[in-house]
Description:
Structural class: alpha/beta
Oligomer: single chain
Largest sheet: 6 strands, mixed
Number of strands: 17
Radius of gyration: 22 Å
Strand content: 15-25%
Distance between the termini: 38 Å
Helix content: 25-40%
Number of helices: 13
Strand order of the largest sheet: 3-1-2-4-6-5
Amino acid sequence: MIQYYRIGETICFSNEEGLPFEKISEPQEAAELTWLFSREPGSCRASFLVNDRDLLMADTESVAWLNKNELEKNRLAKNKQGNGKQENGGGWEQLPGWVDKLIDAGKVRAVNCAHPRFEEILTWRPREGRKRVHVLAIGDVGSMLLTGLHLLGGDVISSIGICDLSENVTSRWEFEVNQIAYPWDYDALPPVDVVPPERLFDCDVFVFVASKGIPPVDSGIKDVRMYQFENNAKIMAMYARMAREKNFRGLFCAVSDPVDPLAKTAFLESNKNENGEFDWMGLLPEQIQGFGLGVMNARAAYYAKRDERFSRFLTEGRSFGPHGQDLVIADSIEHYDDALSKELTQLTVTANLYMRSIGYKPFVAPAFSSGALSILMALRGQWHCGSVFLGGVYMGVKNRYTAHGLETEILRLPESLYERILTAERNLAAIV
């Protein structure tokens, strides 16, 4: 049975029994609502936007939450377990129409009341205004990403701080980028300054582009991303712990390869106390996002423009999964062709090998499509490609940040496509 609660100024509702909050009668209307649920903090997002009422009835968070078919199966299963009230979901009273309207309007947020930072999360509101962005490591990818943010981010970025092991590198890029300006409109682009390591998390957005190094073009290594993981994970762990120490509450962007496992590394390492035990007092899972899917989506579009067989991708397609071998490209959702989709996926996954075969490192397109463009879209609250936490893995999906939390797209996924996404989920879970 649905119960309503008041916690401070927040109106909440839940179907859980025994919650220790002030009960109230059903309000006739409200500007917004918060759904309360209880789960182990490391197993799910601490909060998210409820963009489908079936999410209120879903239990274990997973990639099934991307699939409307699976959400409906879960609801029907609960119906059978309930009182035979098929429309109510396991005996639940039907949600009032005004609650459904709030869900449709994007005004319902879910919060895990079992999280140790529950009270803080409950009162969270996104900070308005332009953001201070810090970029760690100004190498090949970092320098291109920095250039993109500077050129394109004046509407959402107030200033950009850069940090690197080499003072010459940061001096060069502070000097170079600040000389990129429109004539007579010298404040249109966000200024760049050098920040010391101890101030890295004095910002709204932290962008991790640090890397131990990319193997030479002639190394013969096929999956460069996973080759990098062991060393890059050590670097990520160090900065994730620093974020915890600094009580960082902004957006933590993982751009270095392999993006998805490194995002999970940041989450896990930031949530360990000084004894190495999980206390879930570090970064929230939805506070971290991996930015690697953008370039894979763009590469799929590149091939779709050049081969009529794949052209549906440009208007009907989607990309899911990691920036690597388990990538899932769908040529279409409504008219899905498994064979064509797998062929397009293979072209997309091996595009970086082509670049390396002609003697170049593939870093320009990733720096812009996965990095600068996707990060700016995230800051603008636009739909973009990125890896978000779903039941223990960071999975690449179409998502956006809203005033009421992180929203992931829910689609009716064809069974064969969904099986590919499940495979990606299992393989990602095995990495970290």
